[in-house]
Sequence to fold (117 residues):
Amino acid sequence: MHRAAAFRMSVMKTRSRLVTFRLSTEEYEQLEQVCVSSGSRSISEFARSAVMHRVSTRTSQKPSLGEDLATLSERLRELDTALKELSGWIGRILGSANAVNTATATGESQPEHAEHG
Fold:
């Protein structure tokens, strides 16, 4: 079927069911960017298309190599994001610990332990 004909059919189809899910601010911003770059008319259209594509590929018995690679790529992006976030947390924790250790080693008094006259 030609894309324009498929588009007209999808626009004319009555949809009566609602699916709702939550996204983080970062996830929503990514979704907006992908919607714009893909030329989707709306986030709903893009999400519907993506979900239905996933449903149709799940029903096939063997996923294609391209789908496997796309899934792997997405998981690697998620892992990379999580590792960057964890690295930031570790850096902040170590930075705080180093500041306390430096102050203790140099004999500087800490504000909460200062003696009152």
